[in-house]
Amino acid sequence: MLAEIRSLNEECGVFGIWGHPNATQLTYYGLHALQHRGQEGAGIVSTDGEALLPLKGEGMVSEVFTPEKIEKIAGHAAIGHVRYATAGGSGIENVQPLLFNSTTGSLAISHNGNLVNATQLKGHLERQGSIFQTTSDTEVLAHLIKRSGYATFEEKAKNALSLLKGAFACVILTEEAMYIALDPNGLRPLSLGKLGDAWVTASETCAFDIVGAEFVRSVEPGEFLIITKDGMRAERFAYPAERSICTMEYVYFSRPDSDIDGINVHAARKRLGVQLAKEVQIEADVVTGVPDSSISAAIGYSEQSGIPYELGMIKNRYVGRTFIQPSQDLREQGVKMKLSPVRQVVKGKRVIMVDDSIVRGTTSRRIVNLLKEAGATEVHVVISSPPIKNPCFYGIDISTAGELIAANNTIEEMREIIGADSLTFLSVDGMVQNIGRTDPGSKCGHCLACFTGEYPTNIYPDTVLPHEKEKVK
Amino acid sequence: MLAEIRSLNEECGVFGIWGHPNATQLTYYGLHALQHRGQEGAGIVSTDGEALLPLKGEGMVSEVFTPEKIEKIAGHAAIGHVRYATAGGSGIENVQPLLFNSTTGSLAISHNGNLVNATQLKGHLERQGSIFQTTSDTEVLAHLIKRSGYATFEEKAKNALSLLKGAFACVILTEEAMYIALDPNGLRPLSLGKLGDAWVTASETCAFDIVGAEFVRSVEPGEFLIITKDGMRAERFAYPAERSICTMEYVYFSRPDSDIDGINVHAARKRLGVQLAKEVQIEADVVTGVPDSSISAAIGYSEQSGIPYELGMIKNRYVGRTFIQPSQDLREQGVKMKLSPVRQVVKGKRVIMVDDSIVRGTTSRRIVNLLKEAGATEVHVVISSPPIKNPCFYGIDISTAGELIAANNTIEEMREIIGADSLTFLSVDGMVQNIGRTDPGSKCGHCLACFTGEYPTNIYPDTVLPHEKEKVK
Amino acid sequence: MLAEIRSLNEECGVFGIWGHPNATQLTYYGLHALQHRGQEGAGIVSTDGEALLPLKGEGMVSEVFTPEKIEKIAGHAAIGHVRYATAGGSGIENVQPLLFNSTTGSLAISHNGNLVNATQLKGHLERQGSIFQTTSDTEVLAHLIKRSGYATFEEKAKNALSLLKGAFACVILTEEAMYIALDPNGLRPLSLGKLGDAWVTASETCAFDIVGAEFVRSVEPGEFLIITKDGMRAERFAYPAERSICTMEYVYFSRPDSDIDGINVHAARKRLGVQLAKEVQIEADVVTGVPDSSISAAIGYSEQSGIPYELGMIKNRYVGRTFIQPSQDLREQGVKMKLSPVRQVVKGKRVIMVDDSIVRGTTSRRIVNLLKEAGATEVHVVISSPPIKNPCFYGIDISTAGELIAANNTIEEMREIIGADSLTFLSVDGMVQNIGRTDPGSKCGHCLACFTGEYPTNIYPDTVLPHEKEKVK
Amino acid sequence: MLAEIRSLNEECGVFGIWGHPNATQLTYYGLHALQHRGQEGAGIVSTDGEALLPLKGEGMVSEVFTPEKIEKIAGHAAIGHVRYATAGGSGIENVQPLLFNSTTGSLAISHNGNLVNATQLKGHLERQGSIFQTTSDTEVLAHLIKRSGYATFEEKAKNALSLLKGAFACVILTEEAMYIALDPNGLRPLSLGKLGDAWVTASETCAFDIVGAEFVRSVEPGEFLIITKDGMRAERFAYPAERSICTMEYVYFSRPDSDIDGINVHAARKRLGVQLAKEVQIEADVVTGVPDSSISAAIGYSEQSGIPYELGMIKNRYVGRTFIQPSQDLREQGVKMKLSPVRQVVKGKRVIMVDDSIVRGTTSRRIVNLLKEAGATEVHVVISSPPIKNPCFYGIDISTAGELIAANNTIEEMREIIGADSLTFLSVDGMVQNIGRTDPGSKCGHCLACFTGEYPTNIYPDTVLPHEKEKVK
């Protein structure tokens, strides 16, 4: 399960709205719905047509914003961002949207994703005299826009975007317009919606639901949308490559009530669980899922296998950033955090434990142990995705290859390490077919790099993993 | 569903531990596990054998305590309390444990429950010269102990406890001993456990699991346990009445991983769902449960009926106390809070929506509406408990009779009010038999007062409901 | 100088107002003016005629109150309190005003002072069944009122007050009236004022100035004032003893802009400085005062002696509760706090350093050292009060006799300990005559106990010093 | 008096230390001593030789830093900054030191002052492709360094500094060195000191005293100091122009215990007071000074005139950022803030009120009124500087000419506006001679622009006043 990772490094979420008198407040609610995509920092930049008004801070959405502060930056358009947490905490300067001032007009950017040619572009820009105040890839885009030789902002932005390689879902705000762009591979999700006459964009559709907006369509790979007081125009900054949306968005990252590219996340996960039960037959008494992201797959597994679904463990909802970690001493005495087993459910039972993925294996070992201590006679681990053997360069921080348990061990070795009675992974085909995308002229519509090692873009020799950026600085 | 109530008024949770070098820290973790029982305030009083050391504050456990503060009150014994939220917020003075100083020894009390003769006792005590600094029933107990004519603390406490009528699960701490007491009807749950040589008590066993303690047994009605450095002795302050544990602890209040009197809460709820599906046959496409407390019943219903269980709505985990409520204006535009429907799951479907209870009906109406707006063609509401027609005087604040929708309407009228296509309640017998208690010589082992109006104790003319206490002051 | 003490233990301040639509807000401003009298906690209890509404917390006035919170307890009458800081921090329960609820009417008390018979009274009350939730003397008064056999609240209160021995300046609030009382020796200051039709009372007149109230007169020893909607009546609960107002209020404790019993504090301090220069002749180049409380005396000394007054050291205004204390290591390297010498002013100069008092001597030694390191060739310490040889039982916490440097050393020994070139104290007569009270039929109008050992009241064998109360608990 | 201004817009303070194991902590203490120079924000960037480690935030020094946070950025060198408060609050991005990352080495800058050619330089840089993330002049310097064609960092920095016009006192930190620079006119103060083997720099010497460092010398106009592990080298980036240090640093801005260019501030202010008493003879009973900055001058005036110095008003120390402003209603009823008159001192007296300056006149009018209401029969205002008739472009925000009372009124008109019985300003010559600089080959060593309109540098047509920067953005 990716919870171990998610607690350290998460992706980001973006939101934007143009043409609504309550744009700033609605962005606040939109960010609230995207909170699971990043808890380190949150920000909004709005505009009243005169200036760009920033408000951001470290922490959760509810910590950063107050009614008074939001009132101060009221505007008819706004973009927002939630930022993933990094181990070291890189400080307020990296909290987005980034805002760039200029005598010829200002510019704010919210960005989700990771560029693979950021190092090259930075070096290039620095040699021309650019200086960087953040360690964020987003700043590269701003410099490229500014330096572009084209005449209009629109042309400058398209030119700059065409130079980026990797994953990026961006919303750009100026005093006159909001711009939306998605990388040519469509690696990250980005949706377009309407709320009355206002245009809305968000990483996930759950942010549309919270503000009452209607889903219009997904932003297409390579697309560049321009939204002004005169309405919306769709252009392109690049020919779309083969669509390669991140599989992990379906498997564990997005909220179950979101539709990613028209496919509901809960429904897809349930199908993955059904498929798992088709691929493997295990005799057991109960099926349970690691909360929260594996519940849907566990229900599907139970439905298909006929083995009853039970709440085998529950998550402590109140373990947040201010939770006092137990000392090593107390941990050894058995003080639990986050997950508690439901003793009466698992005691004396053969348990099928459904999880969404295994990264380093430490969490899986801990959960198997938890269930066994609670009296489970057998624990069979079934994973609703294939083994992760390769690092991700597109924004999900799943460690370096050296840390990935599946990169260095056979499945049998992994089973032994985590202490399970059996260990099963979903097949790549089983996963792809059951997520159920039908991208015309595309192999499968997904980026499968972390499973297969086939990256949809070039990976440059000095491409930097998200979690390594801190060290660069 | 009782979420509407729970967000305003909840019960409390108590915890105590005697004889462990990390007693204070372990109490912190125990209170963490009981956080769902009260979020208004939290406190710990510990002892190092020399003095009673208090630490308390308004807010959540993680807001009140810091490592430094906990370190300062380190002791070998400690009791703790989480307090339910009240609409007005009655301030720090009511946060427990209450601490009473005296030149002849101090005394701290954590208390869960509500007394039905508090007004009488207070009047009596005031006429003798007592003054009250809180609006809490707990203070009455302290005065009664102090005034008792008996010679030893033990005798004084037993004498005082014998005068109380109603619901009370108490832990008392002095420099020399920890005392545990449960009302003669056993209206509230209270468990006894061991962690190595240390004795532990808690409202729910989930607090044992988090600290690694083992469940020993339930505290019995009318029991008075004395724990000192010489070990534990069990005595009685009253003959036990017929056991009448609150049904709602099973139906919605406790954590699913807790065992209440030896019965697992999740398992009981699932059985209620199974029974529901036996009592009513509805043709539908999907079963869904109102998160979090109705998930188990929904799974049981699905299992029994064969209709697939789906995540029909999800709860926004991040809507906490600092969430900025949308203005009326924005609410009308569709800004949602707390619950989001999963559109693709319910659209065009006949939905069975399982909930644990209906109090005023407003929340049910809102959820039915949510599902219909999301495209459900039919919404059938099935409730895993009988209609609530009477107020609770024992600590769960379910409004006055005037506000209870079931007290004033037929089921058909209720169905119309909440806008459902059908509305079904579980039968009283179906509920009692499936929770599955087997109390020898007892009618059913439960307090069913809110359903049947038969209160297990006298109700005095001036008995005060929990939510009315604020006004008294 | 008493700064060392003041930083640990200070007296308290009380404020009350009756009959003004903005009573709560005005109390906030009044407490602001009294902030120097206590920084550990602050509280207000107001009334709208229906109930007593409390609001209190630990910390400074500006930390405890917000506009929203104040708005919530708006009333036409209010009493407030600032509490002195104690080393250990005894927690929120001791923050005043204390509020006592009762079915026959509530009662709130703000109290400045210390009782000498509190232990006796507590023992007596406990034997009758009273229990105590705070370690404050104030609670004793509430119990005595409650237990009094008299018929009316007024008679009960007068009866209770007549049993108290020691120092107390009290304001009591009920829904119907505000009561003001001062101990028979008038040990602590208490003033009465008017703001339009509203009656106001405060420990110091600087609180009248901030709200625009006019000084009417001092509350007299033994007086009991009753203020209701029908106006003010003055009664007595005791025959006044010889007036014995605390000398230290003039010497260092009160704000220089306050008038204590009609005598301005700054003016009195300046006269003490003038007198000092008459009592001792020292050849020197500059006069300087330890900020803030000794500035007035230093100016007086300079004026009389003709030696120019200079800013020889300045106080760091920003060293507050959140200041990070330098490690021992850094302190030894010279990191300063609180006071910085003004090098160019003292370098190569013979300096007269005026301070208000010496308690343990540690601070004086530190300041003398500071000036010498900054280049002063001679440092002559002159103190604007006599040597403190005895503890105070009336509310100013000047340590036990064992810690008082003057109780155990000759002046020459003290001079050597603090490293000064000379050390001079003001004579008792010089002090008394120059504060300038003219109490008819009174020896001097002052309590001089800390200097002379003659206590104006009985001191009981088990009288507890303020700073020892923490330990009792 | 400039208090009205200071509360809105203040200058900044810089600090730097190289070569000390506790560099970060010592910077914290240094910033503490400079807190009066800016209360909006504070920051430290330190280095351990490997990377530049930032820590900054909005608010006071004691709010921004905690021991844990400081520990995390421990280093052997550090620079710090306190930022002046602006009305609107321009947000975290402008809090210094600014940090610029680059693949070829990072760079942090602390800057005090205001450039007069910032708009030109920004336009120039933007046309070359630079983008700006702050509204601070400091960012201009970073861009110029980065773009400079010279080979070494040293040469780049000198080249960049030589392009700046206006006031700037800068400290620059890289992983390898600390650089110190002062503008060619020496408009702002900057001192150099040593603490053992470590080099220290600060805006004022009071920051040396707090850390125990010794003053070595002032940084000279046009100087560029390079400090590395090999020691300190002094170079120049420009020929020094005529020294023109800001007069206001002596008159009201700096702390009295600081020496600015070898002249103690308190001593200089006292001489200004002496000179005032020579320039004007007024018959009066008492002399009083507006706290805190005018106390020294008032003492000097008293000494020279023989009229006794008194504490005529006192400042409320606890009115900080969280103080609840009284409503208009309460203000009209007389609720005071900040200053309270000492009634007994001024009642029935002819008062000489010494202040350091008059800007808009509103505060002076309020204070005169305060004294008259308190009973002063006459109030004579004497100002220890000449009339301010021109705006400042070098960092002290004294409004535009339109708001300056002295720019638009005769002294008699001003007297009438503020309601004084007489109004006297110090002569320019009297001020300059008594501050007492003796700069060889310089007219007077001071910038007198705000008094005389003679600016020591060119003022460009689009030079932006500090308080107008917010609007630009």
From TrEMBL, chains A, B, C, D:
Residues 12-230 form the Glutamine amidotransferase type-2 domain. The keyword Phosphoprotein does not apply. CDD domains: GPATase_N (cd00715), PRTases_typeI (cd06223). The active site is at 12 (nucleophile). Its EC number is 2.4.2.14. Binds 1 [4Fe-4S] cluster per subunit. Binds 1 Mg(2+) ion per subunit. Keywords: 4Fe-4S, Glutamine amidotransferase, Glycosyltransferase, Iron, Iron-sulfur, Magnesium, Metal-binding, Purine biosynthesis, Transferase. NCBIfam families: purF (TIGR01134). Catalyzes the formation of phosphoribosylamine from phosphoribosylpyrophosphate (PRPP) and glutamine. This is Amidophosphoribosyltransferase.
